[in-house]
Each structure stands twice: as structure tokens, then as C-alpha cells.
Write a structure and sequence with these properties.
By secondary structure, this protein is of the alpha+beta class. It is built from three helices and four strands, in the order H-H-E-E-E-E-H. It has two domains: 36 residues, no CATH class; 58 residues, no CATH class.
Length: 95
């Protein structure tokens, strides 16, 4: 492995399903194509009814709250290693 960012992503993802079920080669190929984003507390990844992105997300540090639009009600919470945004991506619908 030559890409240190990809190596760090690999070392993290290999501990969490479904990534833990991949071969080293498959996982490293994915890790070479990962986009890393950093968000401060209070920022949004996406909003309800927003058009689906071409990505899904994995929480590395901290947590992500899932809130119902127009209400301040916590619907779900994603912690380290949790995946979110995948359901909308698979069904090709809005969030």
C-alpha cells in the first residue's frame, strides 16, 4: 500500500461490516476511491426530500443525528462505524 490516507481508511473500515467481509484487495480498492468530508457540529450532510447523492456515508469520529424535517425530533443516531444514506442510494429516491 502506498497511499497513507487510503491505508488509514482501510485500517478503520476493515473492522466494520460489510467492509470486514471483503478481501484485502477489494477493500483497498474501495479505500483508494473514498472521499473524506469533515463536518462541524450543527452542519447537515443532507436534508429530508433532498435528491439522493451518489455516495453513502460512514461515521469515523463522533456521531451523526438523523432528524425529521421541520421538527427537532431525533429519529436515529449513527455512531463510529455506522453507515447512513445507503437506503436512498439503493432505491434511487430522495432522502
Amino acid at each position: 500500500m502506498k497511499n497513507t490516507i487510503a491505508e488509514r481508511i482501510y485500517d478503520f473500515l476493515k473492522n466494520y461490516p460489510p467492509f470486514s467481509f471483503l478481501t484485502s484487495e477489494e477493500l483497498y480498492l474501495i479505500c483508494q476511491n473514498v472521499k473524506v468530508i469533515y463536518l462541524e457540529n450543527g452542519n447537515y450532510v443532507f436534508s429530508q426530500e433532498e435528491q439522493v447523492h451518489d455516495d453513502f456515508y460512514v461515521v469515523k469520529d463522533g456521531a451523526v443525528g438523523v432528524f425529521r424535517e421541520g421538527e427537532n425530533v431525533l429519529v436515529d443516531k449513527c455512531d463510529e462505524g455506522d453507515i447512513f444514506g445507503l437506503r436512498a442510494l439503493i432505491r434511487k429516491g430522495n432522502y
